[in-house]
């Protein structure tokens, strides 16, 4: 199965408590159709200390968000956009459906 969003893409969140946020994808979980996006869907974890290496306390980190709730962000259009693919030779390039710019 091919996923349309990849690691290090800039995406816009279109649903949920962080709607409208533009940020970078940190990782993709293809089996669950989910992504971890920087500073989106923050949760608090209560962590027990692990001796001297790791102190205990409450840590904030990103939780995953479903891929249907993010859109690829176009820098020219300044919004989340739908995109298509353009094949040149043996390479595929994603292009914006609105302005035709490369993503």
Task: Please give a structural write-up.
The chain is 0% helix and 49% strand. It is mostly beta strands. Strand 9 (83-88) and strand 10 form a beta hairpin. The relative contact order is 0.21.
Q: Top keywords for this entry?
A:
single chain; two-stranded antiparallel sheet; mainly beta; 0% helix; 6-stranded antiparallel sheet; 103 residues
What's the gist of this structure?
With 103 residues, the protein is an all-beta fold. The protein has strands at residues 10-13, 22-29, 34-37, 42-47, 57-62, 65-66, 70-74, 79-81, 83-88, 91-96. The model has no long low-confidence stretch (mean pLDDT 93).
Radius of gyration: 17 Å
Outline the low-pLDDT stretches.
Answer: none
Order of helices and strands: EEEEEEEEEE
| Biggest sheet details | 6 strands, antiparallel
Shape: elongated
DSSP strand count:
10
**Estimated share of beta-strand residues:** over 45%
Q: What class, by secondary structure content?
A: mainly beta
Q: Which helices and strands appear, and what pairs or packs with what?
A:
Elements: E1 10-13, E2 22-29, E3 34-37, E4 42-47, E5 57-62, E6 65-66, E7 70-74, E8 79-81, E9 83-88, E10 91-96
Antiparallel strand pairs: 1-2, 1-7, 2-3, 3-6, 4-5, 7-8, 9-10
């Amino acid at each position: 199965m091919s996923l349309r969003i990849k690691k290090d893409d800039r995406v816009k969140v279109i649903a949920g408590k962080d709607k409208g946020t533009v940020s970078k994808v940190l990782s993709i979980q293809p089996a669950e159709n989910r992504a971890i996006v920087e500073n989106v869907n923050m949760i608090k974890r209560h962590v027990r200390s692990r001796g001297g290496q790791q102190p205990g306390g409450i840590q904030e980190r990103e939780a995953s968000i479903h891929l249907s709730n993010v859109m690829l962000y176009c820098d020219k259009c300044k919004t989340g956009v739908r995109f298509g693919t353009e094949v040149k030779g043996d390479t595929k390039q994603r292009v914006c459906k609105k302005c035709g710019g490369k993503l």
